[in-house]
Every structure is written in C-alpha cells, then in structure tokens.
Amino acid sequence: MPVNKLYLDLLAADANPIGSLEKRVIEFLEADGSTESLDSAAFDQVNGSKIKADYLLGNRGLVAELKTLNASPKDRTERRLKERFSQPDAPIVFGSVGVSRVIADLPDRDAISKMMIDMAGRAVRRHLQKANDQIEAIKSRLGLPDSGGVLILMNEAETMIDAAAIGYTLKTAFETVEGGYPHVTNVWAIIESHRIEMPGGRRGFPHLHVFKSVEREAELEYIGRMLAAWGRFSGSRMERIEHHGDWKVMRPIYDGEPPILQPFG
After folding, report:
1. How far is C-alpha 213 from the geometric centre of its chain's CA atoms?
2. Phi/psi at 36 (nearest 5 deg)?
3. Whole-angstrom distance, CA of residue 212 vs CA of residue 187
4. What are phi and psi of 9, to 5 degrees?
5. End-to-end CA gap in the chain
6. pTM value?
7. Of 9, 110, 128, 202, which is most buried by a Cβ count within 10 Å?
8. Which of 115, 87, 92 is nearest to 102 (CA)?
9. Range with the lowest mean pLDDT among 15-19, 48-52, 99-103, 153-157?
10. Rounded distance between C-alpha atoms, residue 130 and residue 173, angstroms
C-alpha cells in the first residue's frame, strides 16, 4: 500500500561550503564513532558483489544510502515544451520570457507545470527505488529487520532540481507508488544548487527531512541530532523553516543566473 501520511521538515543553513558536497558528507558521517562503512573489508565476505547500501548509522539503527543528483532535466524538458509550443494554440513569443508567463493562459497549464516537475523529479524517483532495494538487501543480509533506512540525496549543482521539486516528487512517490518504498523510512536532501529565504532576510541552503512516522522516536531523535551536527560541521546552524504546506516557501534563490529554458525554436 502507498504511504498514507508523510511528514516534511524544511531547514536551512547560511554556511558557505568549501569543497565537494559528497566528500564533506562522507567525512561527516565517518567522523561519528557509531558509523560503519559497508565498503570496509569487514563486510567483504558478507556482501561480496551483491547490491548494498553505503553505511550503518547509529549503532545499526539506520541503514544509509548516498545518492547524488547529477542528471540535468533541461534537454528533456525543452523537448517536451517544444512539442507543446508547436501546436496551433501556442502563443507567439518574442525575446526572453519566463515559461510560467507563457503558459499562464493555456487551458493545459497545470499539466505543463506537472510535466516540468516530473522531468525534474525523474532522478529522485530512480534513486528512491534503488536505495530502497539496497537498504532492503543489507537489512536482510545482516539480520536488521527493525532498522530504519535513510536515503541521503545530495544536489550540489543541478539548478533545475530545486527543493520544491524534490519535496513534491518524494511526496507523490511515497503516496502513490504501491508498496511506498517500505525500507526507506527517511530522506535527507541536501541542496546546494540554490538558496532559499530565511528569517531576517538572510539566505541559506535548504535541507529537507522527509519521514513516514512520528512513532519511530529513536530514529527521529538520531536524525535530529545528525542534522544539528551537520550545521556545526558546516560552520553554521540548522534552522527550521515553517512552510505550512506552501511550496512557495522553497522558492529558489540563485547565486548566479537562474536556469534558462529555450523551448521556442
């Protein structure tokens, strides 16, 4: 069955990161004495060449898999938009105009917007399925039926895969896919491809913590400590941002030029 209820925390940190995000995450996780790397020689005989996750966290309370979002949806999205704008009812556009303005008066504007989000979220869904399978394999192989599973999604550079697209994709994936990815009980998405607005007019990099149940208290407490520790590790402080289900709170703010689509040619 799909997941009936999903929880989403939005956080942000106004740090200025240096170096590769993936390397920083690995350094951060491996600095904790309760972390075990599933790539270490201690697990060679158990895992062999079979699929596996990346880490055991919190004295094996969580199985963690790291995934990087590095496949831009730009080309696929432009192709789909070109197909739509080649139809007779499409507007004629001169110069550079935002896609949202162009589609505002079209009868299928909601379908076009959904298509764009679906394109942006394709990699998220693919990683979610793979992580579920990898976490399941480790839980079965090591006899950890009660352990949770956390997918750590990292987006360092893909500007079109913003926090709202990630959050919406995770929500719809968990709520509509049969089975609901049962072995992924948490997702921690770290987004450094853009910033969002923070209280007081500050800007920070967004983080999403998506989880299925408030009853897994020990698991949530561990991830809460982990998120706070990441803020300290990054030289900042993680701050919770109230969103009340409004995706506009996650509106991306880019340090450079925003992503540009060219579907009118």
Report:
1. 18
2. -125, 125
3. 10
4. -100, 135
5. 44
6. 0.88
7. 128
8. 92
9. 99-103
10. 13
